[in-house]
């Protein structure tokens, strides 16, 4: 019996130790396949497993889709065609700077369909820092790990007289050269999806640790044996070896947007001749340090896995597009003018999505990275003439709004310093008063600045959405203008414009609608109609887009009772829709329809903050209820784990904030609106060394309501918390119960910021 007790004690100690070790290694919780079970007609995330470093310049992914297919990896696929270097932020935006490698055995195959191999998820390991898969058709195991601009492959071959590695530089113009004396292949790819100058190239270099026995280049017309150089529309190379059973061939790969020489520099600086295991260990350490800034404890395994899978997505985009030259100088290829220039450059994000929660998360947890991003925005403006609204790598014509204003203003207003904010303010003014190329500036700006809205009947699509977003953007500029002590007349101009949201309020429906140039509201208005006056949504989704003045919206709707009834109606209405604007059901519509939450369309961004608006009208317990419902029902750490496009960290950032118990409804203010935490404990370690500790030890599936909140042991009755107070370090103790407390947070003195009540 004593021996049995001792054995049980050892088992218990081992369980505790393993749990602690896993907690210390948050990367182990990440499922990079979350969201990969997606198709064109239904997005469960539209993600791919990015093997990378946080915000790294180059990502790598197994490629199941064909060349040029935005759905490069789908969970339901049966074959892998290659391992692809990628910069793709979204399948809808697609990729640039892409090429792939693929090991094969036996018959010499190089075309993507011929070289494709069956694989199984049962023989696949996928983590942010490591990927491994068994290629069944070739009896090969491929492993890879990555740095910011390089990757290290370790490929285990069987005994074979013809083991080969195919390098595919893709079509649309590419070049490849084999250098046998150095066991090296160099080349470039030009394939892109827009947003680049004519001279765009991604230069790559591969170094092998085994001499080539056979050498081929190839193009559309076939293989060319011992021809060491190929320039064509679609070029590639195949190098071959004799291998023994279990023999490992290492391939070190790096690339550059600048030159072959810089690609070599990136390779030597980040990989050198280090063993695979060393690079892998370093990458794991980097991921653990980055993800470890937020420590979640006291949830189910599913919740912890979801949390860190989401946190992983929030630190992927935008990507670093800058490089470090041989003199240690930061340089970049400009996707705007095609020149090599000094300084930072980032790309791969759409501010329409990410201004809402992703950038607020960076400002709270990773501000030094966002400082680099702000410096990069200065270069965007100087080189491109406007701030980007969607970059990949340069200006892309996608989405609406002028939300760079929020991204720039919020960073400065939340304390980031050490960069040229005056140039960025100049860029905001330029964007706010001009219409630029490729979704930059403001489409319909002359109408907006004179009438106070973009009219419905002047052939400018999604006009109501533009008006509402411009109004919030003007608020962001107003706040920044005041902080920078700009002239009073200038400040007053933006203060006036930010109230333009009122011009679209249609009292007949108590919702926002399009408005004609003559001032009349759109005839035959249908609040369930998607698109048309709105962007990827309908009036039920966009009517809440008054981030800076919810009290003003409450007043328009007839007071708190009418307002909360309208919020309730979002969930109680059936998922009715009118898709006539699109001529068919777009995936965002389908995702709303099937979630069984009425008109609430969490799979797209415009409504994601709406749950938190109950706090502005004295019913915070409804925020607590619905935020928990969304977290539990719409997020899972599985291939179908999102309820729509993940969108470069935005949908994930919603989950991270909501798990912590608060959300940045109005990013350009200094407040977060309270919900209720998901875990028993979350610890956020700030860059200044302070910690935010969020305790909710009675938290459970039933205990989803806040009975009482204490801030540093003192009872706290507000429905919001302040960014700068959190920066001092804070302990928030939530007393969680299973019934709503309908007295806490009901006083107007508890309500979050609205311009109409605070005017500051």
Structure description:
With 760 residues, the protein is α+β, with helices and mostly antiparallel strands. 29% of the residues lie in helices and 22% in strands. The protein contains 21 helices and 36 strands. The chain has a 9-stranded antiparallel β-sheet. It has a 7-stranded antiparallel β-sheet with strand order 1-3-4-10-17-14-15, with no helix packed on it. The protein has a 6-stranded mixed β-sheet with strand order 19-31-32-36-33-34, covered by helices on one side. The chain is globular. Mean pLDDT is 96; it is low at 1-21.
In a few lines, what is going on in this structure?
This protein has 760 residues and is an alpha+beta fold. The protein has 21 helices and 36 strands. It has a nine-stranded antiparallel sheet.
Which strand order does the major sheet show? 6-7-8-9-18-13-12-11-16
Biggest beta sheet summary: 9 strands, antiparallel
Question: CA-to-CA gap between the ends?
Answer: 71 Å
**Which stretches are poorly predicted, pLDDT < 50 over at least 5 residues?**
1-21
Please state the CA-atom Rg, rounded to the nearest Å.
27 Å
* Basic shape: globular
The helix fraction, in percent, is 25-40%
Strand composition percent:
15-25%
| Secondary-structure-derived class | alpha+beta
How many extended strands?
A: 36
Number of helices: 21
Overall average pLDDT: 96
């Amino acid at each position: 019996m004593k021996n049995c007790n001792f054995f049980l004690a050892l088992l218990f100690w081992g369980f505790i130790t393993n749990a602690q070790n896993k907690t210390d290694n948050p990367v182990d919780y990440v499922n990079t396949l979350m969201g990969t079970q997606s198709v064109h007609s239904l997005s469960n995330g539209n993600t791919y497993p990015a093997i990378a470093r946080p915000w790294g310049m180059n990502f790598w992914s197994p490629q199941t889709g064909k060349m040029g297919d935005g759905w490069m990896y789908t969970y339901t696929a049966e074959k892998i065609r290659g391992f692809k270097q990628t910069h793709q932020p979204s399948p809808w935006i697609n990729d640039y700077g892409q090429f792939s490698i693929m090991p094969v055995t036996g018959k010499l195959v190089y075309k993507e369909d011929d070289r494709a191999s069956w694989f199984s998820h049962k023989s696949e390991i996928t983590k942010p820092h490591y990927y491994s898969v068994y290629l069944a058709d070739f009896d090969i195991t491929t492993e890879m790990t990555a740095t910011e601009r390089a990757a290290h492959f370790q490929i285990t071959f069987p005994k074979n007289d013809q083991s080969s590695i195919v390098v595919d530089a893709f079509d649309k113009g590419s070049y490849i050269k084999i250098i046998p004396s150095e066991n090296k292949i160099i080349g470039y790819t030009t394939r892109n999806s827009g947003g680049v100058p004519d001279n765009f190239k991604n230069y790559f270099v591969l170094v092998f640790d085994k001499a080539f026995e056979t050498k081929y280049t190839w193009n559309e017309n076939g293989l060319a044996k011992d021809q060491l150089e190929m320039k064509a529309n679609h070029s590639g190379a195949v190098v071959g070896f004799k291998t023994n059973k279990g023999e490992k061939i290492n391939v070190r790969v790096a690339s550059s947007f600048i030159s072959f020489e810089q690609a070599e520099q990136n390779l030597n600086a980040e990989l050198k001749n280090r063993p695979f295991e060393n690079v892998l260990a370093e990458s794991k350490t980097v991921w653990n340090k980055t993800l470890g800034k937020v420590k979640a404890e006291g949830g189910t395994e599913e919740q912890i896995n979801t949390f860190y899978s989401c946190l992983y997505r929030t630190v992927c985009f935008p990507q670093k597009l800058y490089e470090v030259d041989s003199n240690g100088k930061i340089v970049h290829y400009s996707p705007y003018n095609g020149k090599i220039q000094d300084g930072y450059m980032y790309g791969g994000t759409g501010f329409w999505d990410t201004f809402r929660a992703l950038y607020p998360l960076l400002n709270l947890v990773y501000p030094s990275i966002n400082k680099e991003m702000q410096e990069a925005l200065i270069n965007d403006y100087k080189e491109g003439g406007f701030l980007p609204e969607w970059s990949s790598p340069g200006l892309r014509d996608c989405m609406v709004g002028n939300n760079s204003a929020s991204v720039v203003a919020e960073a400065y207003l939340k304390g980031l310093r050490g960069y040229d904010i005056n140039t960025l303010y100049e860029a905001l003014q330029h964007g706010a008063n001009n219409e630029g190329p490729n979704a930059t500036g403001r489409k319909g700006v002359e109408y907006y600045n004179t009438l106070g809205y973009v009219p419905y009947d002047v052939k400018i699509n999604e006009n109501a959405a533009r008006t509402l977003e411009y109004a919030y953007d003007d608020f962001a500029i107003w706040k920044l203008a005041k902080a920078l002590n700009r002239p009073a007349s200038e400040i007053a101009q933006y203060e006036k414009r930010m109230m333009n949201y009122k011009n679209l309020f249609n009292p007949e429906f108590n919702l926002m609608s399009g408005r004609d140039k003559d001032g009349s509201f759109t005839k035959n208005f249908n609040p369930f109609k998607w698109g048309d006056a709105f962007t990827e949504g309908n009036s039920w989704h966009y009517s809440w887009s008054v981030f800076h003045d919810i009290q003003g919206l409450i007043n328009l709707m007839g007071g708190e009772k009418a307002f909360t009834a309208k919020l309730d109606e979002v969930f109680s209405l059936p998922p009715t829709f009118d898709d006539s604007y699109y001529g068919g059901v777009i995936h965002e519509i389908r995702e709303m329809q099937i979630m069984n939450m009425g008109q609430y369309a969490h799979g797209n961004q415009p409504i994601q903050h709406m749950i938190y608006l109950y706090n502005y009208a004295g019913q915070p317990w409804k925020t607590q209820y619905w935020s928990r419902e969304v977290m539990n029902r719409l997020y899972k750490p599985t291939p179908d784990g999102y309820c729509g496009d993940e969108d470069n960290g935005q949908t994930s950032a919603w989950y991270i904030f909501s798990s912590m118990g608060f959300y940045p409804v109005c990013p350009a203010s200094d407040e977060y609106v309270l919900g209720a935490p998901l875990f028993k404990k979350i610890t956020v370690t700030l860059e200044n060394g302070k910690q935010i500790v969020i305790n909710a030890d009675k938290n459970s599936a039933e205990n989803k309501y806040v009975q009482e909140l204490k801030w540093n042991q003192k009872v706290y009755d507000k429905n919001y918390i302040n960014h700068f107070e959190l920066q001092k370090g804070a302990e928030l103790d939530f007393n969680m119960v299973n019934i709503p407390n309908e007295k806490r947070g009901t006083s107007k003195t508890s309500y979050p910021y609205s311009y109409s009540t605070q005017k500051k």
